Amino acid sequence: MCKNKNTFLMMYHGGLMPERGIETLIEVLSLDSRLYLFLLGNGNEDYVAELIAFAKKKRVAERLLIHDAVPHSELWKYTGAADAGMITVKASWKSYYYMLPNKFFENIQSETPVICSNFPVVKALVNQYQVGILCNPDDPNDIIQCIYKFWFNQEFYGNCKKHLLLAKEELCWEKERIILKEAYERIL
Fold it and tell me: Which residue, 20, 86, 113, 157, has most beta carbons within 10 Å?
């Protein structure tokens, strides 16, 4: 179940920079006054000021929370407090289209369902483990429909939370380390 029936907390964590979908998430804030967006990360001061100005222009600045990056050992406390981890990067570059960012796994480890860009690599894992929803990262209306599915379909959200427990056990460094070690042994 989402943490609060009256509000929904989206979280983006990572580098605060253009083409990461942050502006679109601010647009999403303007679609429902019960939404909050927490940005956790470092960025160029001018760009962060632009984000704040854009939020003021959209009249959502009071629901936009920005915090500097935290040590990795503390990250789970923040990601775990969100209702959804937002991985809505735009397909500005081929590397973005084929992304599989750390934030995906960090949300899994904190048992936070994800809303991800409908791109091939993350799509495969979201579908395989059923830990979130895929969206068009360029469409605020599509993103809010995904939020509403989490927020108002508690059975679906609860199933994502259950599936996160399996994903958390399988998609972790302890298992990946063995695969990497075996690969190195074959090569060497």
Answer: 86
